[in-house]
Each structure stands twice: as structure tokens, then as C-alpha cells.
Amino acid sequence: MTTTTTAQEITITRLFNAPRELVWKVWTDPYHLQRWWGPHGFVNTDCAIQLQVGGVMRLNMHAPDGKVYPCQGTFREITAPERLVYDGDPTAEHACGAGLPPSATVTITFAEQGDQTLLTLHTRFAAAERLQAAAEAGFVIGWEATLEALVDYFISQNYQGDTP
Q: Which residues belong to any copy of the Activator of Hsp90 ATPase homologue 1/2-like C-terminal domain (predicted)?
């Protein structure tokens, strides 16, 4: 996994030992998404995905201490199974937006590399101050842990290249 940061952008890349169609499916199907989204110890409820431009992706992340972190984004672009672009909810109260920061644009690309998938998560913040606030709130650490949780989900479901 690699992470790079500029004044207004954070990019995280991770190679998954799974085909692109499978990684796309577990990212865009609410049944799967709510089972892996978020760092270890978090539980998700109320997951819904309207996979269309202008549609909403939302869920509530419940921290181990019981605090609830709402996550909501609006799809700006969908190119299955290659690319998703979300806009983070501008009214979100937490700097990380539970993975989709307020007023940020998050672009996720799914690139085939043989039987594997290179996932790139690129977040562009509205201002450098917003990036700083999200970083201080654990944005990068949270996403790195979330992508580890996705690996664990693949393993727990015994996904070895077969689409669920």
C-alpha cells in the first residue's frame, strides 16, 4: 500500500489479489460494503447504494465506543467496473466523513493487473485546511485499516477469484 499527499489531495493505492469485477462488486453492493467498510472493530448499519449518477451511497459506521459516524456521498461518475467518483456530503460533521469527507471529491479506480486489481483511492479536498483536519482525524490511518478490512473480508468469504 502506498499513500501520497499534496496540499489538497491524498492518494492511497492497494493491490488486491482479486479480479477487478469482484473488487467492484464488493465496493458497489450494499450487502458486501457494510461488511467490510471502516477500520477493524467498527460495525456498519443502514447501508444503501443507488448506483447511478446523482444517486447516494450511505451507511452508518458504529465505533467500538458506540459513537456513530455517518458516511454519505453522491455519485458524480460511474464507469463500471473501472471508476467511481463521489462527492462527500457537504453537511457532514466529522472531518473524515467516515471515509467520504465533507465537500471532497473521492475518485476510486479499479485497474486490472492480471488476476489482481490495483485500487487507487484519490481524495481531493475543498481546501488545504480540510485535508489537514481530515488527516488529524485519522483519514489516512482509517482508510489503510479499511483496505486491510477488505482484504480480510475477501479471505473470510474465501473469495479466490470467484465472483460471489
A: 17-154
